[in-house]
Amino acid sequence: MPEYLPPDARFFDADIDFTESVAQDIAPANPIRELARSKVSRRNFIKGVIASGAAVSAAGYVFRGAGTGGRAQAAAATPERLVSLKVNGQTRRVDVTPNETLLTTLRYKLGLTGSKLGCDRGECGACTVMIDGVAVYGCSVLTASVRGREVVTVEGIKGKDGGLHPVQAAFIAELGPQCGFCTPGQIVSAVALLNENPKPTRDQARHAMSGNLCRCGAYENYLNGVMRAAGRA
């Protein structure tokens, strides 16, 4: 008859390694060791992941629509990028993105760098241009929105004889330009004002020019230039 052993006595059996048994009970599972013990090889595991990814991609392709029909729908949803602009009396064809501003197009695609990039958020007026005779900030207007409209930059402003415009000559006489960075916007704003109101009062001129910031503080010089040009612009 075999000798009876109480339940706890099994740990003292000579055939059992007590240290290894306890270590296996308390040690956390090692995923790499478990993968090695399983019948799934690393190569088969990677193959399974690749196959799963291909299945997901195929499902997305099915739901989007395959063939030329899907591409035709995408093309129909994309706005036309080639835009015709009438700038300074000339029609220019230019490729623009849907979110491209008029200032970006003028400076970097049409080479009209007279309009300056200042704040780029419609505050300083250095990028002022005229659209259908109205002074606007070029950084706040999308190029695609001005197709078929008349755009005038400072490069398109000149006198009847091809020389200086009366506003430009008056600004020079009154020492308006200091560093000159704001000057193109000041000129465009003044010309737009005098085209609409050739003889403004000083307060009207001040109000019309208030959208142009001058880092040199030559506001009175520019205002005097507007009043000098009034009636002769």
Textual characterization of the structure:
The protein is of the alpha+beta class and 233 residues long. The protein folds into three domains: 16-75, no CATH class; 81-154, Ubiquitin-like (UB roll); 157-233, [2Fe-2S]-binding domain (DNA polymerase, domain 1), CATH 1.10.150.120. The chain has helices at 18-26, 31-37, 42-64, 67-77, 102-108, 166-173, 183-196, 202-209, 219-229, and strands spanning 82-87, 90-95, 128-131, 134-137, 150-152. Strand 3 (128-131) and strand 4 form a beta hairpin. The longest helix is centred in the first third of the chain and has 23 residues, at 42-64. Residues 8-14 and 61-66 have low confidence and may be disordered.
**What kind of sheet is the major sheet?**
5 strands, mixed
Q: Estimate what percentage of residues fall within beta strands.
A: 5-15%
Helical residues, percent: 40-55%
N-end to C-end Cα span: 128 Å
Secondary-structure element string:
HHHHEEHEEEHHHH
DSSP strand tally: 5
- Low-pLDDT windows of residues: 8-14, 61-66
Keywords:
5 strands; Ubiquitin-like (UB roll); 42% helix; DNA polymerase, domain 1; 233 residues; 3 domains
Give the structure's gist in a few sentences:
With 233 residues, the protein is of the alpha+beta class. It has helices at 18-26, 31-37, 42-64, 67-77, 102-108, 166-173, 183-196, 202-209, 219-229, and strands spanning 82-87, 90-95, 128-131, 134-137, 150-152.
